[in-house]
Design a protein that fits this description.
With about 160 residues, the chain is an alpha+beta fold. It is about 25% helix and about 25% strand. The strands form 2 sheets. A 3-stranded mixed sheet has the order 3-1-5, covered by helices on one side.
Length: about 160
């Protein structure tokens, strides 16, 4: 049984057995995973084989053009910051295996007082280019706001 918090590295040459072969293990320690594993071990049936894995994050990039209402033009920077905060909250509030639609992000922007118009320029997973209508996280994935850019444009 490995010592909790120990670091191991694993590498293996699959071409042939090596004399005096050593197995080296790299293990990225995640406290939550070990806590969950130990709690499951306390109550699992004796013949059950349990493997606990961490969920993967899906980084989301959004670029949005926003038109600030003429009556609120003096507080435009505050409105743009409020839009960015609302978009980050909307993306990060999703759970495992969820779908995020670009239209819901537009609705989130319109919910901010002082926004006259909003248009998504880029909405995608980090590393991709262009725009998609929705992003679907798998059952072992969750969405995280990455690059959220809000531009103020004139009408």
């Amino acid at each position: 049984q490995p010592i909790t918090g120990s670091r191991y590295t694993v590498s293996y040459n699959y071409l042939a057995p090596q004399p005096n072969e050593r197995i080296i293990i790299n293990y990225n320690y995640n406290k939550l995973i070990s806590d969950v594993t130990f709690n499951i071990e306390k109550s699992r049936p004796i013949n059950a084989d349990i493997l606990t894995k961490g969920a993967e994050e899906v980084l989301i990039n959004v670029t949005m053009n926003v038109v600030v209402a003429q009556a609120s033009i003096n507080t435009a920077s505050l409105i743009l910051q409020n839009v960015k905060n609302a978009l980050v909250s909307a993306i990060n509030a999703t759970s495992l295996g969820t779908t995020l639609d670009s239209s819901s992000l537009i609705n989130t922007a319109f919910a901010i007082n002082g926004v006259a118009a909003a248009r998504i320029i880029t909405f995608n997973v980090n590393g991709n280019i262009g725009q998609v209508l929705n992003i679907i996280a798998q059952n072992n994935q969750y969405l995280v706001a990455n690059d959220i850019i809000i531009n103020q444009v004139a009408t």
